[in-house]
Amino acid sequence: MQLDPDLAAPDGDLALPPKALAPLTVRAFGQSVLLNVTSDVHLRDDSHWRLRAIYEPALASQTLAATGVAVDVGAGFGSFALPFALAFPNWTLWAFEPEPEAYAALRANLAAYKLTNVVAVNAAVAGAVAGEDTTAIATALAGGISGAELDALLPKRAFRRHVDMRGVIEASDVISADFEPCHYGTVPSEALRSLRPNLLKLTAPCAEAGVLQGLTAAPLDHLIGESWTHLPSALVYGPTSGLRQTWIPRAGDPLLRLRRSLPLSGRREGLDVVVAMYNAAPWIAECLGGILNGASDDTRVLVVDDASTDGSGAVVRESYAGDDRVVLHSKPNGGCASARNFGRMQSDASHIAFVDADDVPGPGLFAGLLDLARHTGAEIVQGGFELLHEGPGGERRGEPSYEASLDSLRHAHRHPFAPQPCHLVPSAQLMQGQPSIWRRVYRRDFLDNKKIWFPEHIRAFDDQLFQMLTLQAVANVPMLDGVSYLYRQHDRQDIRQGDERGFYSLEMFRLVLKRGVTEGWRDFHPVLKSFVNTVNWCWSGLRPDLRPAFERAAAELWVHAGFALGAEVFADLPAAGFAPPDFGFLATQLRRKLTGIGPSLGGVYLDAIEMHAGLVRRES
User: Fold this and answer.
1) pLDDT of 16 over the 50 cut
2) Contact 69, 142 (CB under 8 A)
3) Which residues are within 8 A (CB) of 592 and not within 5 positions of it... i.e. 6 or more apart?
4) Which tens digit of pLDDT belongs to each residue from 312-360?
5) Nearest-angstrom CA–CA distance, 507 and 462
6) What DSSP line would sit under 198-240, residue for residue?
7) Would you give the DSSP letter of residue 9?
8) Are the C-beta atoms of 106 and 82 separated by less than 8 Å?
9) Fewest CB within 10 A of the end CB: N or C in the chain?
10) Which of 291, 286, 261, 478 is nearest to 367 (CA)?
């Protein structure tokens, strides 16, 4: 059936204007077509680039059904519609284009190829406006009605058009020197649901979110296009219809691309926040409240009670009885690392985070990070953090983290995101700073493929090992501004006890070095710089009777690392950078013992009693 009979014999007023550019040869989807274009050079070149750079590659990674309905919003002169309709003759394609000259070129091109599976509509598409009745429009579209009869039903909405690049039309009435006001008949996207579209090609600057919102219930299997504004990932991942395979990059920003592919792992497309809990009754309710404050519907909290004796589990059960967002697991005591690993094994989500039960995630932290993860595809994304201090009377004070003073982060290039911008942080820089795994969201497949887990035999500093291994595997970490994690400071923290647990830091670094040598890491400098910082911090907080042993063990591990990695790696890391006063002397003495022995990667496997907290505890 010919859906638009006028295409066979276009009216005289649809002829292209005399100033039109030479026809353009377009090759896509296995087709080659010669298309008339408009007088707008930008529209011609940009449409052709978008086809080759976005639409064709996106659909090449997806499998289309034998039949279906496609909606082309912002069809232009038909650079997508023509080759697609020829390649998929059993599909029906609706092409919407508001600009008269571009629409005329589209009609002429369709007529030239005698396509009967395309309906061309001279209209824009945008989200709903309160008070508009979309029923008649939806009925007309479902009946295959186009042309003047449909146009009479459409509301005329305000847009703006670029004065030079006439094909650039935006859903905005803000006028400047570069833009002039215009009005077009507009199809509310809710009315498109009557077409039951399976594919959406979207070019609707500043109207993208409204268009997708109106198509929430449409059975869309494929979404391709480009966005000029932020698209919340819930528009794709939320309770919608169809497979929603998505590739919508942000115009002018290669970092941000709203994406979704077929879930191959069988995991739920969402976020699980694992909370390792041991005797955290005073804090756990506030912690869970912080996680859920502003969290998206696809976020779940897995609380792992590591055999608490203070009633922490009862607090969770009573506070969240009947709330599916919070799941409580109980296990024998095994330490924080054990609890985190246990929670991860209970998780069925595509993304995961790990939170300490005594901390307070800020509002919207994990909703924003999950959204950022979906737009970047990054293995790791993060927010900011502050140190939370509490006085004896309950008064609170937030202390900015060390990152607040780093010019490299404060002046980093910002990418437009919502509600706050984001920027990239070099992973090497993060490796040298304080372990802060709790303000991050990880892709579960990344952790699994890299075989990164928490070492359960280490009862402190296990988060630093996890931080080192994850950050070593990526170049940069996208960081979302405006969200924060409050890291509570209190006397019960393991790392503040000043006892043998400080020696776990040495065991942890030995594990990192062994892993790096085994995997062939090319750059150990961030690890070694972190080692210097950690040794200095631990030594300053240790009991005086433990300092000599810690200093000897740290110096020995440092020398072993140099024996394995080579002196050149340590060129800008002199022993004088260590706080323990005899560190340099001890390191020199040990090097003399190794004189005459050639360098070997086996150096990282050399051991000492003081490198193991359990043995230190037994000897002390």
Assistant:
1) no
2) no
3) none
4) 999 999 999 989 999 999 999 999 999 999 999 999 999 999 999 999 9
5) 10
6) SEEEEE-TTTHHHHHHHTTTS--SEEEEEBSS---THHHHSS-
7) S
8) no
9) N
10) 291
In DSSP terms, 586 is beta-bridged to: none
What are the pLDDT digits (tens) for 76-127?
999 999 999 999 999 999 999 999 999 999 999 999 999 999 999 999 999 9
Q: Tokens representing 610? A: 């003081």
How far apart, in whole angstroms, are the C-alpha atoms of residue 76 and residue 18?
Answer: 18
CA atoms within 13 A on the CB side of 469: 27
pLDDT at 498: 65
The rounded Cα 415 to chain-centroid distance in angstroms is: 13
The Cβ-side half-sphere exposure at 221, using a 13 Å CA radius, reads 13
- Mean pLDDT across 444-458: 95
Q: What is the pLDDT of residues 66-79, one digit of tens each?
A: 999 999 999 999 99
Residue 120 host element (H or E): strand 118-121
Is residue 26 within a helix (H) or strand (E), and if so which, with residue range? strand 24-28
Structure tokens that stand for 73 in this block: 């919003």
What is the spatial distance between Cα 352 and Cα 301, in angstroms, rounded to a whole number?
10
To the question of domain 268-492 being in CATH 3.90.550.10, the answer is yes
Do the beta carbons of residue 512 and residue 469 sit within 8 Å? yes
Angle between helices 547-565 and 504-519 (to 10 degrees): 10
What's the number of CA atoms in the CB half-sphere (13 Å) around residue 529?
A: 13
What is the pLDDT confidence band of residue 7, given thresholds at 50, 70 and 90?
very low
